[in-house]
Each structure stands twice: as C-alpha cells, then as structure tokens.
Write a structure and sequence with these properties.
- This protein is an alpha/beta fold.
- A five-stranded parallel β-sheet has the order 4-5-3-6-7, with helices on both faces. A two-stranded antiparallel sheet has the order 1-2.
- The protein folds into two domains: about 10-195, Orthogonal Bundle (Hypothetical protein af1432), CATH 1.10.3210.10; about 200-400, 3-Layer(aba) Sandwich (Rossmann fold), CATH 3.40.50.
- Residues about 1-5, about 155-165, about 195-210 and about 400-410 have low confidence and may be disordered.
- The protein has helices spanning about 30-40, 55-70, 75-80, 85-90, 95-100, 105-120, 130-145, 175-195, 225-240, 250-260, 270-275, 295-305, 310-315, 335-340, 360-365, 380-400, and strands at about 10, 20, 215-220, 245, 325-330, 345-350, 375.
- Strand 6 (about 345-350), helix 15 (about 360-365) and strand 7 form a beta-alpha-beta unit.
Length: about 400
C-alpha cells in the first residue's frame, strides 16, 4: 500500500495510516499501531542490560494498577495506554527534559493533544494522572534491575530506589512477544471495561448490616478454588447495579506487617503477589528465610492470634467505610465467619472439585463448617462463574428488602 503524505508534519503508521502530528484525529489511531510501535521502542534510550520495550513497561503498569484495584478496568485501560503517545513521537527521556527545561512546555503541549485524541478514540476519560503512582513504581523497579547503576541515587519518585530491596526480575520479551501480549491485555481489559461499565455514583443501599455499617459478604475458604474471582465478579455486579462495593481482606494488614519485617529476605509487598502471573510465587521458598511467603503469612498470623483471637478481624474492619457492600474473599477461620454472621452478613463457599486436599491450618479451619448461606461450584468456565456470581448478587439484593436485616438461613 502506498501512503501519500499531505504535509511535512504527517507521519506514516505501521498499518499505513497517515497521522497528522499537528491535528491528530481519533480516526487515525488504532490499537494495532500503538502495540507495534511501542514494542519496538526501548526504555531508557536503550541503556539496559536486556531489551525492555515501552509496550512491556505499559503491561507492567497495567498489571500493577489491577493489583491495586482489581475491579477498576477503566484505570487498567488508562495504565496500558499511559505512554501510547510515544507510539507517534517516541520516548522523550526524563533526563533530556531536565537538561533542557525549555522543552518541557513543548512536550507537555504535544502530549496533551495526543492524549486527548487517544482517549477520544477509545472512549476513555483523559485522566492519566490516576496511574502515575504505578508508572513511577514500574520505573524504579526497571531501573533497579536493568540499569548498570541499579538505580542508585534515583530520588524524588516514591522515595527512590531503596538500597537492599529485592525488586522482582524483569522478564525479557522480544518485540513480537511484547506486541502480542500488549494486544492480548488490551482485548481482556477493554472487554471487561465495556462489559462491567462500573457506575461511580453513590447510591443508598437497600439494607445495611445490623450495626449500621456496610453489608459484609465473606467468601471462603481454601486456596485455588476461585474466591478472588467470585469477589471481583460480585463487586462488578453491585457497581453495575449502582451500589458501592469494596474488597477488604482479613490478611491485608498482616501482609503489610510481614513485608515491613521481612523485606530484607526478599518478601514482596502483597500487591506483587496479586499481579497476574505472579500468584505461584506465594509458594516459592525465599532462600534467605527458608520459608515461602504463604508460610510466613500463616505463621505470623497465627502467632498474633495468640495475643488476641480477633486481631485480624478487628484490624480489617476498623476502617470506617461508606461502601454499601464489603466483600471479604479470604474468610478462613471460624471466628472470621462468626464475625460476619453476627453482623447480619452473608457467607459464600466457593468449591472447585479435583484439587488436592488442603493441608495447612488456614485452609482446613473451615473444612467442616456447615453454616454457609450459599455454595458456588466452580466446575465450568470463567464466564459461567461470573454468571453464577451475578445471580448470587441478585438473590442477595432481592432478600435484602427494607424490612429484612440478614440473609441468614433459618436454623430452627
């Protein structure tokens, strides 16, 4: 195909489009061009030990944003496209901007025009500042693992690279693999964004818990059965129905404490283990400690339960949330189930047949528990699991008429 350039300030794209840098239009923007161009642009102007494309960096930022908020697919889409303008103008490095500050307003004006066109093309809010923290975190990790200096002396970004911190290794992806993965992530994120269309408007719930706070939904109880997926689907569904819903974990503060105590031994922040593809690292032994992250969390958690049996319950539910529903996907112990039940909440068991029998205390504590209000059999496709989760939300809302305060089944 032959492309005709009408003016000196137009450029040709990978798919053969004519892109006007002075007047970029949404019609001249497509995800295929962005993925291909970014996969061939190297970070840090090429001064890295292995090739790291802007496409791969964008995927990492997207994964980090999903780890921070697994149900905000709009933020995830913005994260994947936060450097999309570089597909058309290249990567203007931060040191270049600091060396020639007169370039900053020019670059800012160009990027503002490109970002506006990109957001219009993909029907996204022009709010890339939402993902700045994840962008900076990825930058620091990349510098620490790929630059000859290992990021020493980098400051001003979330405290800079911390001496002695064990940053996760950056996998080496070639341009073609990075391009393919970028397109796969976009298809997944954009598909969920369009399907869920989360409503941000605050609504009054049909019913609160007995203590006037959010209605609690506990999901249990063993690992690898699909608890987090059900929680994500339920949050999406409640938001689609114009309620506010949040995910709270009994283990969140435990994992924060463990990270503070054991980061010297290679333990990562909890968000790292929630990034798609990193889940298996919860079961990998840390050589400096001789235990897996999961073993560390369980042992520390049990020790502090000896101080007070409701340590983690009180810690998780101490924050005053204005949400209508709080989903707790790690309900593992009898006293945790009891606290949800006493609040007038709802208990859901997710079960996947064929998995090895649980062998640690966290997975076994509720093995004989019979007080579940609903059981979801995770024995089909992910789409069916999502549909079952949505049906359960409808059942809960239907039962929570203004006169009812609990979904608990009658035990009489």
């Amino acid at each position: 195909m032959t492309t005709t350039f009408a003016t000196p300030h137009t450029t040709e794209t990978f798919t053969g489009k004519v892109f006007d840098l002075r007047d970029p239009g949404p019609a001249s923007i497509c995800i295929e061009d962005i993925a291909h161009h970014l996969s061939l642009i190297c970070r840090f102007t090429g001064a890295v030990r292995t090739h790291l494309s802007v496409a791969q960096h964008s995927i990492w930022v997207c994964q980090s944003e999903l780890a921070r908020n697994p149900t905000d697919f709009t933020a995830a889409a913005l994260a994947l496209l936060h450097d999309a303008h570089e597909a058309y103008i290249g990567d203007w490095s931060r040191p270049l901007m600091e060396a020639y500050p007169e370039l900053k307003p020019i670059r800012k004006r160009i990027i503002a025009k490109l970002d506006a066109a990109i957001c219009e093309a993909f029907n996204l809010p022009n709010e890339f500042e939402w993902v700045k923290a994840s962008d900076n975190a990825a930058l620091l990790a990349e510098a620490a693992t790929l630059l000859p200096s290992m990021g020493e002396g980098w400051g001003g970004l979330d405290g800079g690279v911390r001496r002695g911190r064990a940053y996760p290794p950056v996998p080496e992806l070639g341009p073609r693999q990075a391009e393919r993965m970028f397109l796969e992530w976009w298809k997944w994120v954009d598909g969920w964004r369009k399907r869920c269309n989360p409503v941000q408007k605050k609504c009054n719930p049909v019913s609160k818990s007995r203590n006037g706070g959010p209605f609690l939904i506990g999901i249990g109880h063993a690992k690898r059965h699909g608890k987090d997926s059900v929680a994500r689907f339920m949050i999406d569904e409640f938001r689609r129905r114009e309620f506010t819903a949040e995910r709270v974990s009994f283990a969140d503060k435990l994992k924060d404490i463990c990270y503070t105590a054991y980061q010297w031994g290679g333990l990562q922040p909890k968000e790292y283990y929630e990034i798609p593809g990193n889940e298996h690292e919860r079961e990998v032994i840390l050589p400096a400690i001789g235990k897996t992250p999961r073993q560390i969390w369980i042992e520390v958690g049990n020790k502090l339960r000896e101080v007070h049996p409701e340590t983690w319950i009180r810690a998780a539910l101490s924050d005053n949330s204005a949400a209508d529903f709080i989903i707790i996907p790690d309900t593992r112990y009898p006293n945790e189930a009891a606290s949800i039940r006493e609040s007038g909440g709802f208990l859901v068991k997710v079960h996947r047949a064929g998995l090895p029998e649980a062998n640690d205390a966290a997975d076994c504590a509720l093995a004989d528990f019979t007080g579940w209000d609903a059981v979801i059999a995770n024995d089909s496709t992910l789409d069916e699991l999502a549909a079952e989760s949505r049906r359960l939300c409808g059942n809960i809302l239907g039962a929570l008429s203004p006169g009812r305060q609990s979904m608990r089944r009658s035990t009489s």
